[in-house]
Structures are given as C-alpha cells and as structure tokens.
Amino acid sequence: MSAPKNTFKAALREGRFQLGLWAALGSAYAAEILATSGYDWLLIDGEHGPNDVPLMGAQLGALRHTPTHAMVRPPMGEAWILKQLLDQGAQTFLIPMVESAEQARALVRALRYPPHGIRGVGAGLGRASDFNRVADYVTTANDEICLIVQVENRAGLAAIDEIAAVEGVDGVFIGPSDLAADMGHLGNPGAPEVLAAITHAFSRIKAHGKARGIMTVSLPQAAVYRDLGADFMAIGTDVNCLVGAVGDLRRQFLGEAAPAARGGGY
C-alpha cells in the first residue's frame, strides 16, 4: 500500500481546471457539508480563520472520504506546524507571504522526508499513514505532496521568476487582496494597476510550467481571472456564503431590498 493519491496535484498536471471554496468557520461539521457540494477542493484556512492544529485535523478527517480535496493554509510556513499537518493527512499546502526562492526551497524541504527534506518520521501516529496501516507510506509520501506558494506583495512579485523556478513548487497563488493593499489599493483588488500585476505574474508562472491560482468573492472578477488563465481558483468563502444566505432569506420574506455590497477583501 502506498500514500493516498493526490487528486488535486494530478488534475493540475493534466491541465484540468480546479474550482474551490474557502473554509474559515473552524468547523468540521461545516467542512463536511461543503465537501459534498461539488467543489474540487476546499481550503482549510488557518491563517485568517479561527483554526488550530486539532481543528484543522478534524476538518481533514471530515473531508477524508469525500470527492473534494483538502488544501490547508497554516498561519505561516513554519516546519513545526507543517510537520503536524502532514501527519494529520494534509497533502496540499497553500503557504502565505512567500517572497523569495530561498523561502520556497525551505518549504519544499519541510514537506519532504530525507534525503530530499527535513520532515520527521512519525506519521505512524496519524491519519496520513492510516494510523500505520499503510506499509509503504514513508517511501511514497513525497511524490504526493503538492506545494502552492502564495505571492501577495511587491517583494514576491519582484521574485516571481525565481520562486516559480524552484523544483518542488507545484503552483503559485496570487493573493489579490493583500497585493492590492501593498500596492496602495487597500480594499480594491480589482484596481487596474493590480490587475495588470496579476496578469504579468500569471504569464511568468506559466512560463515556468507551474499552476496559476487565485481567489475572489466576486463572480465577475472570477470570470476575468479565468480568462487570464487561472488553473485553480476559489470563488467564495463559507463565511460569506452563510452571511449572504441568512440575510437574503430574511430580506426575501420581508420584501426588503438587498444592501449595497461591502466588505474588506474576502
């Protein structure tokens, strides 16, 4: 028996567009509902969502036997938390605020067993090896790891070619909200200057043969990003979906008009 097949990584290699959703509620119950809603992947957000390792582990368990692939974003790309999430069964990682090839190379090593990395051997205690029931897990795990690095400021954009060229980086995800803020357009990721930067970044990522990722909560903006060549994209969050649905239900019953759009990024 080998490590589980990473269906998301396989899809990117085959050029199949992957549609996703953000999970930030910190609830395995909510994650289970989202996992059977038709999305290809679900991002368990430990950066901005109220998630710790046990909560993220519970959500990984909820998605384990569903058709939706689990992607995990830790608060930072630190080896200690990546090690724990790997043992909990995470195979695909979105790492925030990557600004250099040096950072990217360190992340590649943190996610792999020796001699290609520094991951500690202890998966027999966790879900990753089906609690030590997968005999060949440690010898096959490296091949199923998918690393997505998140570029979301001008420093990262300046190093986009060096970052995308790192072996072991499977994709580069542009964070439009933080990028817009860093470029002086806080709260306006659709600004023309920001879109031009994203367009350029996408072209450089593609030139290195890596997958291009992004997210938005605006469907018109999502169409723009798809036309630019996004290979994987999230089009909403569980929080926004919940807020929108409960508000719309009440307004429809009372016959009230919908309020003007507002919010701080996603």
TrEMBL record:
<feature type="domain" description="HpcH/HpaI aldolase/citrate lyase">
    <location>
        <begin position="18"/>
        <end position="242"/>
    </location>
</feature>
<keyword id="KW-0479">Metal-binding</keyword>
<dbReference type="InterPro" id="IPR005000">
    <property type="entry name" value="Aldolase/citrate-lyase_domain"/>
</dbReference>
<keyword id="KW-0456">Lyase</keyword>
<dbReference type="InterPro" id="IPR050251">
    <property type="entry name" value="HpcH-HpaI_aldolase"/>
</dbReference>
<dbReference type="InterPro" id="IPR015813">
    <property type="entry name" value="Pyrv/PenolPyrv_kinase-like_dom"/>
</dbReference>
<protein>
    <submittedName>
        <fullName>HpcH/HpaI aldolase/citrate lyase family protein</fullName>
    </submittedName>
</protein>
<dbReference type="GO" id="GO:0016829">
    <property type="term" value="F:lyase activity"/>
</dbReference>
<dbReference type="Pfam" id="PF03328">
    <property type="entry name" value="HpcH_HpaI"/>
</dbReference>
<dbReference type="InterPro" id="IPR040442">
    <property type="entry name" value="Pyrv_kinase-like_dom_sf"/>
</dbReference>
